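Annex B.
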Amino acid sequence: MEREAELQKERLNNIFKELIHDLEVTDIEAAKFLLIFKENGKVKDHVTNLLCPKEDSICEIIDLLQKIFSDRLKLTDLEAQKLEDDFVKASEISDKYLKNIEQLEKILEKENEVFERNLKEQTLKEEEYDLKIKTLKDNFDMDVKKLLYASKKELEESTKRYDEEAEDLQKQYKSLEREYEKIRSLHMREEKELRKTKDKLEKDVEKTIERFNFETKELEDLRMKLDEQKIEYDALMLEKELEEEEYRRELGAQFLLNYMARKIQIHWREYVARKSLKKKKRGKVKSSGDKKSA
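Dynein regulatory complex protein 10: predicted structure tokens.
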């Protein structure tokens, strides 16, 4: 972009130099012209349009320059000397810029040479990389072919083995199917028998439940009767206990009476015996006294 701008500025300077030459002005007048060109805003606008060319831009600039020349070209000697000095300074600055431009061009040439060397080295590296990539691609293709061949062979062997296993499984399936049919028919017969047995058991259970309910009801009735009888039994047992207690008291009293009677009898007999013994002793004493007295 900077290079293109420099070229456009150079092109513009050439255009103005040709215009000054065609107008047949002196160097001082040319300096005045350049000063006017630098100071006037409308000229700058037209220069901008020239950098991005439009139709009639040059014609408009020429018309504007003619008007500016007619209004401002008449200057005093002092102003002319000042313009000449400014022009000399501008020339010196321009030469300095030209030298800088030449130095920049040399630097750019060196950088361009370095860039070309780097580009060449980069190109060689890219060619080397392309060769390596091609080698890797060829090796990859070879490895892929080997893998495909090995996979194909393994797939064929696996398919053959699968077919053999599938055939064995088919035979086993048929055998298991026949065995299943046998077991199924046997289970159906057993299920039929079990269903009959189940129906019979359900009927027996229903009868048993009915009998159980009936017997439970009877048992409840018996329990109620037993409760009633227990009340009567408790009353009878209480009465019996009272009677037995009365009987035991009577037996005790009778036993006590009998015991006392026996005791009384014993004591009475002993008393009678002692009394008779005393009488006998008194009778013996009297008889012995009578004998003595006689």
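The two ends are 212 Å apart (CA to CA). The first helix runs from residue 2 to 23. Further annotation is deferred to the next reporting cycle.
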